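Throughout our pipeline, every protein is held as a single compact record rather than as scattered files. The record that follows is passed on verbatim for readers who wish to inspect the format.
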Amino acid sequence: MTLVSFVVPAFRVQGYLRECLDSILAQPVADIEVIGIDDCSPDGSGDILAEYAERDERVTAVRLERNVGLGPARNVGLDRAAGEYVWFVDGDDWLAADCLVEVAARLRQTRPDVLLVDHVRAHWDDTVTRSAMAEVFPVPPGPVTFRLVERPETVNLLHTAWNRLVRRQFLADVGLRFAPGWYEDVSFSYPVLLAADRIGVLDQVCVNYRQRRAGAITRTRGERHFDVFEQWHRVFRELDRLRAEELRPAIFERMMWHYLVVLGNGDRIGPELRPTFFARVAIEHARFRPLDGHRVPSGVEGLKHRLVAAGRWRTFSALRAASRAGEATRRLAGRTRRRVLPPARLGVRRARDVALRQYQRAERRRPVEDNLAVYAAYWYRGYACNPAAIYEAARRLAPQVRGVWIVRRDRVHTLPEGVEYVVAGTPAYHRTLARARWLINNVNFPDSVRKRPGTVHVQTHHGTPVKVMGLDQQRYPLGAGGMDFVGLLRRVDRWDYSVTSNSFSTQMWERAYPAGYATLEVGYPRNDRLVTATAEEVLRLRAEFDAGLGEQVVLYAPTHREHLPRYRPPFDPERFLDALGPAGLLLMRSHYFHDRDRRRPPAAARGRVLDVSAHPRVEDLYLAADVLVTDYSSAMFDYAVLDRPIVIYAPDWDAYRLTRGVYLDIVAEPPGPVARNLTELLDVFRSGALRSADAERARARFRERFCALEDGRAADRVVRRVFLGENPA
């Protein structure tokens, strides 16, 4: 018999669901099953569940016809569960590695009706806070079971469904299920404890409870938080049904704690609803107060209880305001103490920068220019990537919009003729940034740029992520390079739109850059050219590199290693050309971070090896090449649009994934053959594996997953949505 059935409901958790499922399926316990419930989620959560179900027989994916809410969705999973125990894990949380070993051992040893496990709150800034387990049980109970009346302090553990495993037959016997509405955990978790004859506690952290920066119910204001009252009514009805009157004081105290937590959370109850919510709490206090009395907390919390009992909203509100003012004063004092004054040396350059920032602030007080759009790419390196494709589409579809590019002074010569531009750092640059209505970039604009009302910031990104990005880099400090994550989030909060090329990118950006922007999952504008290029254009581009019709052109484009800035993959152009044969041409392109670090090819290979690192448009190189060799670069996703062979050369894969972190196991799910050393790479070309049936199938799977939106009209879709206000299909 299956020991544990994991029920994983999914609604708008596409950025986190893979990590959740992976954490379950990687547990070293065989007798488990996972039932994933797509609660009619509008994002890619359902597709992710279906993908996992297709490749792992332990996973069952259920897609609901309509959104029913978290509680009823869990019931759907419960009805399909076959395990002896059920564990309800939310799709945005994840399990601690190997925790199921201890959980399974405790289940088999004690056979509890309910086993409570520990957790930590995993915050978006990569900090964690412990649960109340050590406070509730200063001395761990160990491998024993008890009834709630014997250890009533158990109710002070967090009332969630995911921090407890429940025996499935016990649930069926007592008829417990989840109720609809918000706070559905309340009316399940406490009745489970009230009804159980055998409660166990495992003081081991098993669940990482994700504290999301955006999108969580607990950070959503509205009247739905009033659902909490009906959920607690269900708890007291169950208490009465079970005739557990001796537990009423403990349950009542926990109810009051919960109500005051909700009331005090400004992210849940807005100012306009707070008096009404307080009045409801006062009614609940009078309704459920134990006749024989109850424990009142000490200090400020006790004062809150007494004010609720007396119905004194004005005094309660004043107490809250005074408390918040005191906290703000303490924070300000702390910042003042930590502030380090800059040295009193202001040279000419610094004075000029200060004057320019003041000029930009003055320009921000002037009206936004309704027809001005500013474009930038790769930290002002020139005219390139998705912004360039959007610029060209806007000139065609929205000619009333004036487009201006920002470019470094040393890159002005790379701009196409007729493109209007300003040089970074000049007064014109600051004026343009301050006045533009639309700001389009494939990286972030500097911190000095402020989001003005009425302006629209479009983040196009510049690749499908293999390596972890954004907040996820906090877990891989070697690759983070001293990143300012707080500053990063300030920049992300400016975004109105995030352009993505596929569902996978949407999921990863949502997780790496949590904020309130809208996603435009439309394909990558820069790839339109790969779709629409004619055979004549391809021949012309090949001729620029002196590549004849019968010559095999290979583009080698490795990515950057932030954690190893001097690292170069072991690659020998001369040996590689020998493997290609006499009709071979090798184009070598370094990452754009290395644009001042060019290497001359060896003398013996000159003429057949070209350094194309400085070529202004990588799309030209893709079109000219017959084969792409890369490692962990997003180039593979773009090049796959052409449906030409791709080889993954990953000599440092094991070290890279451990130190830099990856979202995609490119060795397990490649777009073609994989070589782990130079000898294997040469064999791929000598043996014909490059164009084998296996390689073709791998590329087809890869294209289906990552290139389905690339139809040559991505830039048009962005322009119609952003500039014209349309919502094209």
